[in-house]
């Protein structure tokens, strides 16, 4: 098994040519990785036509001070379920630590706090998640699938969504233009 302490809080980057179009240029913020499996939130693609204000309206929460940011596609699993990846300056009983990336909360409470101007200072809202069964992610990483980049909150919170994949590679000292879309065998 890959070192779970390393993967929790890292940014998983889809390798070119990984073979699954759902994860083309994916940037996955890893929330958990242990013997039972893995959970991550996609932070590299917006859901077309969905914004924070539309989510708040659906939940009957006055948007108040909340910016009308795009909502991101967290992954192919349970795309109707919402999650907030945020800075560690706000917590509730439903908050889970996400290593260097901050924390994750999946309750209505965090959205109400954001709207009231008392929520986390930095956040992204996502619908859905990426999940792996026990050992599944480890196997994918042994093949030509994923690269575990250092978990840098500035990539998630400060870089425009469409630039996160490229900027995460560059932050690790790798020019993504030079990546091969196929692997060889020795």
Automatic annotation (TrEMBL):
GO cellular component: cytosol
Pfam families: DUF179 (PF02622)
Gene3D superfamilies: VC0467-like
Entry-linked HAMAP family: UPF0301
Protein family per UniProt: Belongs to the UPF0301 (AlgH) family.
Name of the protein in question: UPF0301 protein B0I00_2212
């Amino acid at each position: 098994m890959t070192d779970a302490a390393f993967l929790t809080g890292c940014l998983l980057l889809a390798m070119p040519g990984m073979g699954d179009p759902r994860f083309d240029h994916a940037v996955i913020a890893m929330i958990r990785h242990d013997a039972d499996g893995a959970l991550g939130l996609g932070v590299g693609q917006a859901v077309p036509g969905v914004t924070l204000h539309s989510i708040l309206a659906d939940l009957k929460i006055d948007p108040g001070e909340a910016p009308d940011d795009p909502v991101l596609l967290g992954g192919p699993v349970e795309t109707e379920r919402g999650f907030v990846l945020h800075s560690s300056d706000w917590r509730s009983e439903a908050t889970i630590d996400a290593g260097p990336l901050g924390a994750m909360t999946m309750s209505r409470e965090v959205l109400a706090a954001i709207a009231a101007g008392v929520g986390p200072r930095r956040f992204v809202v996502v619908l859905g998640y990426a999940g792996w069964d026990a050992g599944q992610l480890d196997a994918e990483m042994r093949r030509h699938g994923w690269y575990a980049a250092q978990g840098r909150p500035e990539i998630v919170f400060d870089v425009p969504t469409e630039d996160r994949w490229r900027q995460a590679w560059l932050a690790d000292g790798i020019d993504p233009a030079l990546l091969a879309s196929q692997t060889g065998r020795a």
